[in-house]
Amino acid sequence: MTTILKEVDAVVIGVGWTGSIMARELTKAGLNVVGLERGAKRMPAEDFTLPNVRDDLKYSSRQELFQDAQEETVTFRHSPSEAALPVRRLGSFLPGTGLGGAGAHWNGLTWRLLPSDHNLRTHLTQRYGKSAIPSEMTIEDFPVSYDELEPYYDHFEKICGVSGKAGNLRGQKIAGGNMFEGPRSNEYPNKPLPQTMAGSIMEAACKDLGYSTFSGPSANASEVYTNPEGLTLGACEFCGHCERFGCEANAKASPNVCILPNLLSDPRFELRNYAYVKELVYDRQAKKVKAVRYIDTRTGEEYEQPAGLVVLGAFVFNNNLLMMTAGIGEQYDPSTGKGALGRNYCYQLSGNTVTVFFEDKVINPFMASGAHTTNIDDFNGDNFDHSGLGFFGGAIIAAGTTNGRPIQTRPVPSGTPRWGREWKQATAKWYNHAFNIGASGCSYAHRENFLDLDPTYKDVLGRPLIRMSYNFRENDHKLVEYIGAAMERIGRAMNPTKISPASVRRGNYSVVPYQSTHNTGGTITGSDPKTSVVNRYLQAWNADNLFVLGASVFPQNASYNPTGLVGALAYWSAKAITERYIKNPGPLVPV
Amino acid sequence: MQRMSMILGAAVLAALVKPVIAADAEHGKALFVACAACHQERPDALGPNLKGVLGRKSAALDDFRYSNPMKRANLVWDEANLREYIADPQAKVKGNRMPYDGLHDPKDVDDIVEYIKTYK
Predict the structure, then answer these.
(1) How is residue A159 annotated by DSSP?
(2) Pick the residue with more confidence: A559 or A50?
(3) Would the CB atoms of A45 and B46 count as touching at under 8 Å?
(4) Taking a contact as any Cβ pair under 8 Å apart, which residues of chain B between 3 and 32 contact chain A?
């Protein structure tokens, strides 16, 4: 039996970064908002303090804060010709659950995309010719330009108190910042974090090679900071427990610190924890989502929450799942190219490394914060000429130390045995004398990389699992080899005692080793309802009261960590709703 | 010339001595902003409210979940032990859960204690 609840102005599904941002903006505009969060309520004073942090085994190895694969997961296959099997232990990506979502346990890298990432298809066509983009590479333009989104990037950076240094302030290029970035209206809210030893070595080597380094934009505050919400971040203590942990020093931006204290004290907002959304109630005729059905996971009881406005702020897979099971839009079919739902699933080419070892240098890898990198963007996006290279896109290349946690930080030179006395001796010898140069590469859409509903496997609520069809393609293989060679050049320029050959993502994609939780696409934003699921304001083409937030709207993935763009787009969409949609509900872009 | 250097000498001496004899509460207040990122009056604050801490028993607030080491510390916060604690929290109360490694400049410690004396 389903209990029908009293209608509210808006319901937000998932209370992570996007759900918190949207709920905050809607309540400020006078709407009554219900936030449905399947996980626990997590607040820093209780949940991000000892003994609930700094336990490497519990939080990192045993994945305490992440989605439980026994309840929900995805199935995976490399190509549409294979049968997919469920991912029974999360590895490659680690979606969050609970209040704050992955925003509670991220590292804090907060990027803006390059202007040429925004209008990617147009840009590449203009620079390399009409036939340059292979037909199977189904990349698109973001329908929102860099210049349009700039004020929203700026605002999200202020909410997070991002530490960094501008490389392009209103068109003026500034050495020491990222000179490839688009023009910024303002300097970063906080000064850059102090450079790590690894970063200093990186900077010197890159200078010799003619590349310009800059400090990675970090939502780990370099100093005490009060954001536009009036909420305060402390200064980072460099404890090395960012990714996979809540922040005990109150220094890492998260919805829990930067927005939720205000939202939770607003009587127009009601948070319902353990409210696991099962399905959207879709009225095809009216093109509206009438209500949201959810299960209270403590009692097993089902509720139906009618709402005037529905905001989908779950992770990529659940955004797709809820739209697919409700039939909002046409499922993408790779054999015909028809349908938009599930199209352009992308990822990121992460975990490409060169490890350098220095007998005479002390690296102190444990004195670190999550986003504590010294970067170059010379080989990123279309910042270099791709003529004749046979691929598009590039990578951010960085050196830094985000943690030296003992279970996984065991750098040893290649050729070292994988276990036993020699391995132990080598890990002790090199622990404090090595670091990685790492690269994270663009992931460009491919016709056969997509999401749909699995015909066999079901989740704990009896719904089909999302089926991921994904593999690295020719563009990816060529890209990582090119970037691997660049990283080796940089590594050698550091004059290390030893250097490992580039370890890049070769062969088939594997769901086992962690790469990144930067899964994107499936409900992409675009200008054409035939090839996209939401319009430029992230409003569903097929349900005008449904707005879809998060990285599931990216038409392809740039090399940057996605949260900066996710946050900016949430504020962009919120403004369109509060200034236009509320006054005059209906499609914000004519269909 | 000798008189000149004597005046200079006195000025230098004054500059050296002055900070030692007069802790600067204003400077302490500026430094305290870093503490106040957690030590504030919000009910969901990460640290206990420090208003009126001087003269208070350690682990005395009912609405804050102190660590066991702090509960066992059995201190009455006075200028001397507050100074020691701020300079090196883990040395003073081993195992307490404040994620802060201490204020390393003794002058800063004096200034912040001077400010906390007025923070009621």
Answers:
(1) H
(2) A559
(3) yes
(4) none
Percent of chain A, pLDDT > 90? 97
| Contact between B44 and A43 using a beta-carbon 8 Å cutoff | yes
Residue of A nearest to B65 (CA): A46
- Distance separating alpha carbons of residues A154 and A232, to the nearest angstrom: 18
User: Cα–Cα distance between A103 and A117 in angstroms, integer?
Assistant: 23
Q: In this structure, is the dihedral angle defined by the CA atoms of residues A246, A248, A249 and A254, taken in order, positive or negative?
A: positive
Pairing state between β A275-283 and A288-296: antiparallel
Task: State how far the Cα of A118 lies from the Cα of A144, in Å rounded to an integer.
Answer: 7
- Extract the tokens encoding A414: 């290649």
Point out the least confidently predicted range of A180-194, A512-526, B37-51: B37-51
Tokens 């170059």 correspond to A376
Backbone angles phi, psi at A275, to 5 degrees: -105, 100
What gap in Å lies between CA B42 and CA A289, rounded to an integer?
38
Do the strands A269-273 and A464-469 form a parallel or antiparallel pair, or are they unpaired?
Answer: unpaired
Residue A153 has pLDDT above 50, yes or no: yes
d(CA A28, CA A312): 19
Q: What is the pLDDT of residue A234?
A: 94
- A153: helix, strand or coil: helix
A50 at B interface, C-beta within 8 A = yes
Distance separating alpha carbons of residues A425 and A430, to the nearest angstrom: 9
State whether residue B71 sits within 8 Å of chain A by CB.
no
Strands A302-312 and A8-13: parallel
- Residue A268 dihedral angles phi and psi, to the nearest 5°: -80, -10
Residue A451 CB partners (closer than 8 Å, separation 6+): A317, A320, A342, A345, A466, A467, A468, A469, A521, A522
Q: Is A43 on the interface with B (CB under 8 A)?
A: yes
3-state per-residue secondary structure call for A528-589: CCCCCCECCCCEECCEEEEEECCHHHCCCECCCCCHHHHHHHHHHHHHHHHHHHCCCCCCCC
3-state secondary structure of A284: coil
